[in-house]
Amino acid sequence: MLGSLLTDAALVEHDPPGVADGCGPCRRCLDGCPTEAIVAPGVVDARRCLSWLLQARGTFPVEHRVALGDRIYGCDDCQEVCPPNRRDDRQERPEAGLAARARVSVLALLEDDDQTLLERHGRWYIPDRDPRWLRRNALVVLANTGHATDPDIARRVRAALVHYLAVDDAMLVAHAVWAARCLGQEHLLAAVADHTDPQVQVELVGVR
């Protein structure tokens, strides 16, 4: 995303051209947004937009965590339901290899070290180039998708929860508490029952 442009060129001020409203009575983007972030035609409340929240610093808002579903990076629901976008069939389908690389393992995000995460996903926008924000997002997705029947996957899910409940990062611990609650692993929370950080305490209060 281009946030700013620096130039020494002489620019002529002018009013931007008007943009025709081709939407008419269509409400598909408003109705299709999982967090109702499009609050009126042409008006987006970024504080609710999953694409923005996934790239923002801080705690992921609890009221939007379930709506995140299995999204690790970005949300295109409003674009996908837009009729002009759906009509555009000029773009060929991606090659199988590219499609496979587009899928990201939430457990791998939680298990890989910092260097590996940045090497694999460095093309993404990551605040401060700090993988902790990817891990925060991954913990929310784990809470939404981590009900595993495969014994090996279930073991890895539990190991991830145990690990993040013990890390020296209260923000990640807080999200791990929420994930453990969502996955029916409340018994693991005894390990953080006496945690003094306010973020963690807020999540623990939600468990009781």
Automatic annotation (TrEMBL):
Gene3D superfamilies for this protein: 3.30.70.20
GO molecular function: 4 iron, 4 sulfur cluster binding; epoxyqueuosine reductase activity
Limits of the 4Fe-4S ferredoxin-type domain: 14-43
UniProt keyword terms in alphabetical order: 4Fe-4S, Iron, Iron-sulfur, Metal-binding
GO biological process, one term: tRNA queuosine(34) biosynthetic process
InterPro entries: 4Fe4S_Fe-S-bd, QueG
Protein's name according to its UniProt entry: Unannotated protein
Organism: freshwater metagenome
